[in-house]
């Protein structure tokens, strides 16, 4: 069935969407230039951002021209997943150019840093004590847009028909409002409101405006990039730590839940299974972490132990990566184990956090409970297995539970594979598990394996972990399959044309 002259689909539509994304990426690269009036001594670095930014905008516009003013047909197969994954690849590669233009970072290091930024991880090869402020701000800009998501930003200026499948493919599961565009704009408004509030609170507790802005973005996006080598521990301020904890918890909470919180529907908010599970984990592991820190001599007294324990539990669970202790390399095996488990669990669905996601772990634990209950209860007893979501109880089917357990199994398999690669690079299993759990869960805590001097194998392993961890494994796998189909289809068409020409 043919298409109308004013309709477009297939690979041209994919190219057009990528063109829109590339124009947005160009604008994002240029954003740090707005801060140059405050850092006029760094004006010579403007070219590092101007060149790739302008090139991205021009190339994106050329790619967008074929679909301009034409009606987009429905995406077929898994083209939505392909567009999302290629969009993130373009963002990472183009945003790596300013780092490479400085001459201080090679392609591997630059891609690692930008993958860490866009995935809101926080692992870094940058020495923040010597890094220009415009580049520190640039990293925070990547955290900001990586947190809300490239597609969500694109959807905020497109229609429902253009954006819904892309919105879902990027990992957004809930609409805040019936209209998708309004939902996207509402999410961005909430996000920016929290950042502004966090910045003001940080300044109230003694931070300068530049550090306050960067830390507020990093905390809410659960990214963890800091302007200080000692991270939040540099300030040694309970007020700053408390603001950071609140922002981290907000960042790892489903955006739809924020709407209930803002509207004062606190009962609905706190009945939500992920919020309850999150509080249960923090309540259980904080004293455990406090005892382990005190036993290891990393906290001076009981009060400090609980303060440090709460912060480390929240930073790991929310997959943020800030720290208040000196070095995780000094952690004992039990401490590393607890932190690794928390990083694997991760934050909430529809949030800026990574990890397996709390709702999946909650369903797995509930499924175990339901299974044990069915074994010991009377056979005639009938139970309705459900979890509490924001819009009421959701009854789970056997297939739904199986899908959840399947994802957890695949996630842990990738985790073991990445750990094995790091072990083969000469690191012990405890450190390897911690480091790759941090990369895969987009956390950013490190025992020192990933650094500026790390081998390319280590950095590319971390890059792969951060990428699939941010987009979730299924989307990357499906996109790879769809890319193979698109390439095969293209080769097939060229082959048929060649045969026709030969005849």
UniProtKB/TrEMBL annotation:
Name of the featured protein: TrkH family potassium uptake protein
Residues passing through the membrane, by range: 12-40, 46-67, 79-101, 136-158, 186-205, 238-257, 277-298, 328-347, 408-427, 458-481
UniProt family annotation: Belongs to the TrkH potassium transport family.
Organism: Enterocloster hominis (ex Hitch et al. 2024)
Entry annotated with the keyword Ion transport: yes
InterPro entries reported for this sequence: Cat_transpt
Subcellular location per the Swiss-Prot or TrEMBL entry: Cell membrane
Membrane topology: Multi-pass membrane protein
Predominant localisation class: membrane
Keywords, comma-separated and alphabetical: Cell membrane, Ion transport, Membrane, Transmembrane, Transmembrane helix, Transport
């Amino acid at each position: 069935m043919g298409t109308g002259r004013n309709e477009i689909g297939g690979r041209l539509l994919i190219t057009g969407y990528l063109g829109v994304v590339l124009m947005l990426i160009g604008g994002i690269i240029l954003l740090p230039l707005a801060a140059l009036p405050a850092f006029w001594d760094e004006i010579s670095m403007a070219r590092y951002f101007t060149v790739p930014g302008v090139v991205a905008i021009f190339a994106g516009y050329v790619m967008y021209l074929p679909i301009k003013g034409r009606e987009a047909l429905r995406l077929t197969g898994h083209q939505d997943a392909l567009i999302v994954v290629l969009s993130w690849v373009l963002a990472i590669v183009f945003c790596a150019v300013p780092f490479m233009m400085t001459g201080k970072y090679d392609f591997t290091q630059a891609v690692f840093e930008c993958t860490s930024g866009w995935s809101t991880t926080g692992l870094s090869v940058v020495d923040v004590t010597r890094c220009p402020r415009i580049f520190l701000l640039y990293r925070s800009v990547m955290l900001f847009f990586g947190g809300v998501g490239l597609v969500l930003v694109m959807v905020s200026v497109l229609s429902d028909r253009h954006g819904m499948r892309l919105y879902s493919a990027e990992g957004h599961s809930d609409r805040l409002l019936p209209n998708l565009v309004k939902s996207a704009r509402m999410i961005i408004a909430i996000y920016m409101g929290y950042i502004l509030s966090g910045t003001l609170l940080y300044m109230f507790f003694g931070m300068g405006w530049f550090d306050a802005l960067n830390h507020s973005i990093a905390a809410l996006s659960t990214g963890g990039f800091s302007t200080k080598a000692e991270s939040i521990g540099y300030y040694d301020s309970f007020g700053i730590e408390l603001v950071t904890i609140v922002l981290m918890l907000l960042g790892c909470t489903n955006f739809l839940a924020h709407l209930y919180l803002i509207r004062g529907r606190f009962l609905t908010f706190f009945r939500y299974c992920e919020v309850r599970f999150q509080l249960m984990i923090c309540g259980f592991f904080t004293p455990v972490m406090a005892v382990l820190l005190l036993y290891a001599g990393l906290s001076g007294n009981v009060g400090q132990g609980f303060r440090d324990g709460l912060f480390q539990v929240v930073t790991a669970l929310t997959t943020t990566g800030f720290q208040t202790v000196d070095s995780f390399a000094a952690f004992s095996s039990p401490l590393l184990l607890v932190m690794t488990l928390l990083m694997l669990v991760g934050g909430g669905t529809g949030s800026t956090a990574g990890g397996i996601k709390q709702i999946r772990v909650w369903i797995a634990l509930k499924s175990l409970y339901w299974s044990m209950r069915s074994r010991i209860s009377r056979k005639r007893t009938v139970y309705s297995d459900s979890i509490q979501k924001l819009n009421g109880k959701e009854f789970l089917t056997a297939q739904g539970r199986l899908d959840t357990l399947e994802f957890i199994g695949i996630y842990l398999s990738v985790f073991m594979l990445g750990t094995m690669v790091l072990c083969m690079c000469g690191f012990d299993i405890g450190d390897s598990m911690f480091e790759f759990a941090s990369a895969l869960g987009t956390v950013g805590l490190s025992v020192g394996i990933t650094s500026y001097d790390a081998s390319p194998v280590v950095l590319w392993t971390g890059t792969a972990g951060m990428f699939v961890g941010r987009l979730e494994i299924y989307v990357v796998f499906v996109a790879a399959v769809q890319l193979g189909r698109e390439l095969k289809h293209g080769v097939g068409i060229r082959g048929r044309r060649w045969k026709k020409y030969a005849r």
